[in-house]
Amino acid sequence: MMWFLLCVGLLIGGYFIYGTFVEKIFGINNKRQTPAYAQTDGVDYVPMSKGKVYLIQLLNIAGVGPIFGPILGALYGPAAMLWIVIGCIFAGAVHDYFSGMLSVRNGGQSVPNLAGKYLGKGAKNFMNIFAIILLLLVGVVFISAPAGLLGKLTGGSVGLFVGIIFVYYLIATIVPVDKIIGRLYPFFGALLLFMSVGLTIAIVLSSEHTLLPGFEAGDFLQNLNPDNAPLWPALFITIACGAVSGFHATQSPLMARCVGNESNGRFVFYGAMIGEGIIALIWCAVALSFFDGVEGLKAGMDGNPANVVYGASTGLLGAVGGFMAVLGVIILPITSGDTAFRSARLILSEYFNMPQTEMPKRLMLAIPLFVIGAILTQVDFGVIWRYFGVANQATAVMMLWTASAYLLRHNKLHWICTIPAMFMTTVVISFLLNSSTLGAGLPMTVSTISGIVVTLLVTALVIIKTKGRNEVDEVIPEEG
Questions:
Q1: Which of 113, 117, 87, 30 has the alpha carbon at shortest distance from 410?
Q2: Where do transmembrane segments lie in this chain (predicted)?
């Protein structure tokens, strides 16, 4: 229990100490008008309170990522918890803060436009394609997972639940942001808190299970995977949303259009990622504790992390409490899936320069996205998840380099973004070169050395290309 509380304490401390440092480096301006007021349109640009924006941001970025990812990561042992803490404070929360605040400073623009401004036209074109692909994969993953859990919980048809969720997604994607998302998500946020806190209290008070049984300090530095699967670099792809996630870069601009003051940014963007890190820690600890270690977890998972969610929730909280907890896990991906399609619509609207104040224009972009999404739901979930994981972290890499270039232009301490960008670049390149299913299938040593070399070249390129292109401040562009 001590190790779990220490990890939670480090995350909370990271918000107040390192989060404040990051905010100071960025340099907020409380007198600067945010896009929520400068470009109010009643659809996507709508001012909201700080608390409401925080809850929506937390639900937007959460999905099943901080649940399924940490459960899969727990197969490596408590080393997964160590990465959640370090990754969340120094990479994930920094990534989310800059993706949100750079959008605030640039009229609520999406990540492809931000990448284009600070990294060049090639980066913009790459991110337009990559972001749409990622968001479609996210939308499909976050349809299949909750539909499967609903089928397991009720005994009903999974196909029927897929259809129901699709209809909800379409409605939530095209109506004004404050009509459904702004009204329902605070309630869903309370359900999320119940699920997380309830499971933690239940495992602590349980007479049958011990929190992190038999693990010692040295285990946090070891790979305990029962199949001897290599920890590097797979762990850093697997956990994703619990530590650092490119999907969040596509979501932060949604709330950048609703933030009322730049001083709210640390709480909304950095703070929501810390909150997600705590959720990830809880599920990682519950998975290891309820099944008494990695061997039991492997057997209990039986190839699907949804089995862990269902088994642990009902086993620790009983029928009613378990139902509420599983319901929370169902709602999480749904509340991220709808905003994934919404983000895709807005990225396309920026690309085609198509204002979204009129319903027909929203439908013109949304319907093709849902048709493609419906086709992708027929692909095996495991295949979609693997591609989602790689696309997710590659997007995070691009956003971190974008933030690094921004800081370089402003002669600020760019290393707070450059170092995590370098690490995640090495992770992605090494994983792709080593993977036999998604990449080249090269030996791990060759893949890692190649990843380091590519990372050093990218670092030099970004620094050289950005050097001398100094800026004082961004001007919010006019709408349309």
A1: 117
A2: 80-104, 125-145, 157-177, 184-205, 229-247, 267-288, 308-332, 363-384, 390-408, 415-433, 445-464
CA distance 399 to 269: 14
Let me know: does 254 contact 343? Beta carbons within 8 Å: yes
With a CB cutoff of 8 Å and minimum separation 6, the contacts of 392 are 65, 134, 138, 240, 241, 245, 246, 247
Q: Domain spans of the chain?
A: 1-402
How big is the CA angle at 193 (ends 192 and 195), to the nearest 5 degrees?
Answer: 65
* Tens of pLDDT, residues 222-263: 888 888 888 899 899 888 888 999 989 988 998 999 999 999
Q: Which helix (H) or strand (E) holds 41?
A: none
Structure tokens at 125: 């074109």
- pTM as predicted: 0.86
DSSP assigned state of 262: G
Is the Cα dihedral 346, 347, 351, 352 positive or negative? Answer: negative
Contact 243, 87 (CB under 8 A): yes
Question: What is the per-residue pLDDT for 477?
Answer: 44
Selection from 150, 71, 85 nearest residue 326 by Cα? 150
How many CB atoms within 10 Å of residue 27?
11
Residue 316, token pair as written in the block: 């620790």
Q: Report whether the peptide linkage leading into residue 66 is cis, meaning its omega lies within 30 degrees of zero.
A: no
Top-confidence range, 21-25, 195-199, 476-480:
21-25
Are the C-beta atoms of residues 102 and 119 closer than 8 Å to each other?
A: no
Q: Are 129 and 123 in contact (CB under 8 A)?
A: no
Model confidence pLDDT, tens digit, residues 70-92: 999 999 998 999 999 999 999 99
Q: Which H helix or E strand runs over 29?
A: none
